Every structure is written in C-alpha cells, then in structure tokens.
Amino acid sequence: MTLKEAQKRVDDWIRTYGVQYFSELTNMAILTEEVGEVARIISRKYGEQSFKPSDKEKDLADELADVMWVVMCLANQTGIDLTEALERNFKKKTERDSERHKNNEKLSNNKNK
After folding, report:
1. Smaller CB count within 10 Å for the chain: N or C?
2. Which DSSP category does 101 fall into?
C-alpha cells in the first residue's frame, strides 16, 4: 500500500464509519496520546522500566499504526499529500545531513547498533 492509498483508505473509513474527522486540535491531542503509548512500550521493552501486568499485552506494531493513522487524519484534513511531503523531507535531509552524520564522532563508535 502506498502512502497515497493509505491516506485514501483512512479518509474512506472516516467518512464511512467515523462520521467525520475530529478537529485538528483533538487529533493533535490524540496523536500525543498515541505517541505516549509507543513511548511506554519502548521504555519497558528496551529501557529500564518493567512492565505492569496491564501493559504486557500491548503491541508496539499496533501502537505505531495508531500513530500513523492519526498522522494521516491530520494530513487529510489539512490538505497534505504525505507522499509529496516525505519526498521533500528526504531531499531536505539529504541536502542538510548527507555528511553530518558520517562525520559525527558520537555515531562512529556505534556502527553495529
């Protein structure tokens, strides 16, 4: 599925089952909540925090998909084509950072990560 197709499917779902988009402000709050859920899983799986019994069944893939869903909602309702935006972002990062990370001493010691 392309980003364009995913944005269309989200839009179709919202119009069929969701009645309408939540406001941009509400979706921003929901996005923050979803990113928090991703952080919770990562801090427990890869960090020092331990899982609470209620958190053990949480699925990182599902939470990341929730983040993508809300990002697509925000893009749709603000008229952003994420394919075009991501292409521009790759260009920006390549022009800005093509040598920066290669020359970062902090990264050179971590080549296997």
Report:
1. C
2. T
Task: Tell me how far apart the alpha carbons of residues 47 and 109 are, in angstroms, rounded to a whole number.
Answer: 21
Q: If you write DSSP's letter for every residue of 48-66 in order, what string do you get?
A: SPPPPGGGTT--HHHHHHH
Buried b or exposed e, range 85-100, using 16+ CB within 10 angstroms = eeeeeeeeeeeeeeee
* Closest alpha carbon to 71 in 88, 85, 87, 58: 85
Nearby residues of 36 by Cβ (< 8 Å), 6 or more positions away: none
The model's pTM is 0.87
Residue with tokens 């929730």: 66
